[in-house]
Amino acid sequence: EAAVTQSPRNKVAVTGGKVTLSCNQTNNHNNMYWYRQDTGHGLRLIHYSYGAGSTEKGDIPDGYKASRPSQENFSLILELATPSQTSVYFCASGQSSGNTLYFGEGSRLIVV
Amino acid sequence: AQSVTQPDARVTVSEGASLQLRCKYSYSATPYLFWYVQYPRQGLQMLLKYYSGDPVVQGVNGFEAEFSKSDSSFHLRKASVHWSDSAVYFCAVSAGNNNRIFFGDGTQLVVKP
Q: Taking residues A82-108, what's their average pLDDT?
């Protein structure tokens, strides 16, 4: 079974600080995604990637950067964290748009 | 543009009762359609998916969904719910070559004992 591992699982950051959320997948999927989940908004796509070296903007990319240094790893970077970025972040991987997405267990970020 | 609408934010049913969670999508062609479930403090897991063929697709744990092209819908059903089915259910749609997957806002299912 595909495994997607996120770290850290919980993080408290200060406003203006830098936060990096990491995601690792072991199923050799081409596509990886970062979503945030907030009450009343469901899942919103921040960035995604087709493969190593590629990153694409999703629906709410402002304030976030992404990095895909390898097939297995996809990071979400908040250069200057703000309280509005307090949320639960999910990483997912999938082979293509018609295939199952496999999700990590989420990273809970609180920005104070 | 593709979109997914789940009109019910929360559904409450009694254990043993039947269930239908509604999903409507917007897309010009037939997309890939999915239902995912999220248990508390976990990531999402796929229940079932549809692309073509029999409009009724079976998923895990007794769930099924029916595709309707005329209605642009993909409703999720279960004949008899169990308390352990309490979770948030997401409908999702994907199409085209851009590998984008769009999720609805989710429906919170509460199963009363």
A: 92
The confidence score (pLDDT) of residue B23 equals 97
At A35 the pLDDT is 96
Cα of A64 vs its chain's centroid, Å: 10
The C-alpha of A104 sits at a distance from chain B's nearest C-alpha, in angstroms, of: 5
Structural domain count, chain B: 1
Chain A residues with CB under 8 Å of a chain B CB are 4, 31, 33, 35, 40-43, 45, 48, 50, 58, 90, 92, 94, 96-98, 100-101, 103-106
Q: Which domain covers residue B60, as residue numbers?
A: 3-112
Can you give the CATH number for the domain in which B41 is found?
2.60.40.10
- Cβ(B46)–Cβ(B60) under 8 Å? no
Could you read off the pLDDT of B69-104 as tens digits, one per residue? 999 999 999 999 999 999 999 999 987 656 678 899
**Which of A40, A50, A105 is opposite residue B43, by nearest beta carbon?**
A105
Name the CATH superfamily, with its identifier, for domain A4-111.
Answer: Immunoglobulins (2.60.40.10)
Domain ranges in chain A are: 4-111
